[in-house]
């Protein structure tokens, strides 16, 4: 039943029409408890895919709500929602109405699990082109490069002079552009064409004895993630902890200026402290 249900996924647009998608999702009526139980029973007992589709569509608004909570990672909202939709479909597939809980209570763990995996795969500590000068380099470097491989000293100086940056900036951007991410999983074509049978990081993490369904159902994924974050926060000093908590971990976000007034420093200094603290947290949680 997995493939038929997954084929029902409502593709999330990656352009400005994301607003139209969200408007459409919020326009789908929510289900009463009685109607939800009826549909879930039909799916569970009769493998009714029409019932599955109605269950999925009526909960798209909840996926959007959860995905908004991950906006601080700098990842495209459309991608976060799409990953959450995958989690929703997995939850609908495994939902047993006889347990006596609402689908949304069961699905939240699956939705968050898929989004968490996406964030971990895509959150980069060092980003290419983070300043105006670096963006200029990024978009012009290939055009000014006359051959493959590293620049010679003369080429470095010529590019730096042409773009109005320093030779150090050119070397740094060339190094960043030369570092490519390795695919987490190999495609079937990659495996077939690989002389050694193919390998990827996913193979080192694979555990055939584990059952993701059992793991997610038996533990609160949110509690686990919060515990990891709490443990990581310990490495920060009290001021940095306060900045992270008030800027990222509370409902009412504190502004940079409010924190600047509190600690009698400039708003720019608060921003620097926040950036350093986030980098430390990323390194700690990744480890």
UniProtKB/TrEMBL annotation:
Native organism taxonomy: Bacteria, Pseudomonadati, Pseudomonadota, Gammaproteobacteria, Alteromonadales
Record organism: Colwellia hornerae
Designated gene of the protein: rpoH
UniProt cross-references to NCBIfam families, sorted A to Z: PRK06596.1, rpoH_proteo, sigma70-ECF
UniProt motif (Interaction with polymerase core subunit RpoC) ranges: 79-82
Keyword Transcription appears in the UniProt entry: yes
Chain intervals for the UniProt region annotation (Sigma-70 factor domain-2): 55-124
Compartment(s) where it occurs, according to its Swiss-Prot or TrEMBL record: Cytoplasm
Location of the RNA polymerase sigma-70 domain: 79-92, 255-281
CDD domains in the cross-refs: Sigma70_r4 (cd06171)
GO molecular function per UniProt: DNA binding; sigma factor activity
GO BP term, example: response to heat
Quaternary structure, from the entry: Interacts with the RNA polymerase core enzyme.
Family: Belongs to the sigma-70 factor family. RpoH subfamily.
Portion annotated as DNA-binding: 256-275
Protein name according to UniProt: RNA polymerase sigma factor RpoH
Function: Sigma factors are initiation factors that promote the attachment of RNA polymerase to specific initiation sites and are then released. This sigma factor is involved in regulation of expression of heat shock genes.
